[in-house]
Amino acid sequence: MAVREQPADSPSMDGTADRILLSPPDVGPLEESYLLRALRSGWVAPVGPEVEAFEREVAARVGRSHAVALSSGTAGLHLALIALGTRPGDAVVVPTLTFVATANAVVYTGAEPVLVDCDPESGNLDPALLERTLDELRRAGRRVAAVLPVDMFGSCADYDRILPICAAAGVPVIEDAAEALGAVRDGRPAASFGQAAVLSFNGNKIITTSGGGMLVSDDHDLVAHCRYLSTQARQPVRHYEHTDTGYNYRLSNLLAALGRAQLRRLDGMLARRRAHRERYAKLFAATPGVRLLGSGDIGANCWLTSIVVDRAAAGWQAAELARHMDAHEIETRPIWKPMHLQPVFASARTVLSGAAERLFASGLTLPSGSAMTDQQLDRVAATIADFLDRR
Ligand SMILES: Cc1ncc(COP(=O)(O)O)c(C=O)c1O
């Protein structure tokens, strides 16, 4: 099967075939065989045995009792918020350092995302600021529907501290584990924290269904309600009968088959991403002013590896390395632009320390995909070494 490695928005679609990308899909013959089997079974629909099996397998992998497979991680966040009773005008605490989907899901419900800063070492939600935020919101008389910690680049947030803070405030937690499948923290898998958790199988994630996601929880009723909402909230009658507004959010049986093949390969893909991070750690070990984001987390799935550059100590900026890499057909990206700097969230309530802004200004994410070959990684390493030599 001719599998295109490049996402549709990649510059490498227009001719530069050997451009090395950040995190392209890693698919091959196993995915082909699973997909074909599903196609030939006749279950070409958003229901079927592959969906059910994929749900069981992912739930088992992350230590949850129930799961519902969806068309995206964003859909999962949206449904989790609805199922936990989020209402227009509620506040929902979201880290400012995240991908926009986390905050967008809150906006879909009519609630207000309250943007809280991150821990500078890990980039994850700062528990002390979270506590302050919940306290401020309580004193302002605001109803807080949920806290949505994000497992930044596949490194679990500090749930040891976050969960008791939220429990004391009586606020449910939805773990945005979109990037974190395979990560562990304190012996617990990512997506096992909070009332519900959400995974993404978008094309750039650790495993992909090309597009897809899953909501997992130990709460049977919550998952059953999300399943009902994800299929247009149909009442169990032969004619179409609806008493709630539903959504078309179900994952197709074909894509679930793709996901099952990917899941079988997950451990190998994790090992590969972790090996990439080790290589980067060695490469930068003797470089003053450079650290790896979240390098202290041995349970990270290493979905993406980012460096953080202290310009004064290093004598160069992350953006200079980005330009050098781009000139050599290697994709890099800044660490996310925080939500409070996004025009669409310009008027959002914030609790900030400056940590997310500093990571945005000084961070650079490096190619981390499990499909990256040793030769490609050699090329990335040589290009970085060449840049460092010229400083
Ligand atoms: C932190 C985070 N949350 C949510 C999402 C949304 O997932 P999806 O693209 O599957 O909707 C993503 C990824 O895209 C993400 O990185």
What topology emerges from the helices and strands here?
Layout: H1 29-41, H2 49-62, E1 66-70, H3 73-83, E2 91-95, H4 100-108, E3 112-116, H5 127-139, E4 144-147, H6 159-169, E5 174-176, E6 184-185, E7 188-189, E8 196-200, E9 213-217, H7 220-230, H8 253-264, H9 266-284, E10 290-292, E11 305-309, H10 311-314, H11 318-327, E12 350-351, H12 355-362, E13 363-366, H13 374-389
Helix pairs in contact: 1-8, 2-8, 3-4, 3-7, 5-6, 9-13
Bound molecules: pyridoxal-5'-phosphate.
Offer a concise description of the structure.
α1 (29-41) runs antiparallel to α8.
Features:
single chain; 391 residues; alpha/beta; four-stranded mixed beta sheet; 13 helices; binds pyridoxal-5'-phosphate
Descriptive overview:
There is one protein chain. This protein has 391 residues and is α/β, with parallel strands linked by helices. It contains 13 helices and 13 strands. It has helices spanning 29-41, 49-62, 73-83, 100-108, 127-139, 159-169, 220-230, 253-264, 266-284, 311-314, 318-327, 355-362, 374-389; strands at residues 66-70, 91-95, 112-116, 144-147, 174-176, 184-185, 188-189, 196-200, 213-217, 290-292, 305-309, 350-351, 363-366. It has a 4-stranded mixed sheet with strand order 1-9-8-5, with helices on both faces. The chain has a 4-stranded parallel sheet with strand order 4-2-3-12. A hairpin with a 2-residue loop joins strand 6 (184-185) and strand 7 (188-189). Helix 3 packs across helix 4 (100-108), helix 3 crosses helix 7 and helix 9 (266-284) packs parallel to helix 13. The N and C termini lie far apart (44 Å). The structure holds pyridoxal-5'-phosphate (PLP). Residues 72-74, 98-99, 101-102, 150, 176, 178-179, 200, 202, 213 line the site of pyridoxal-5'-phosphate.
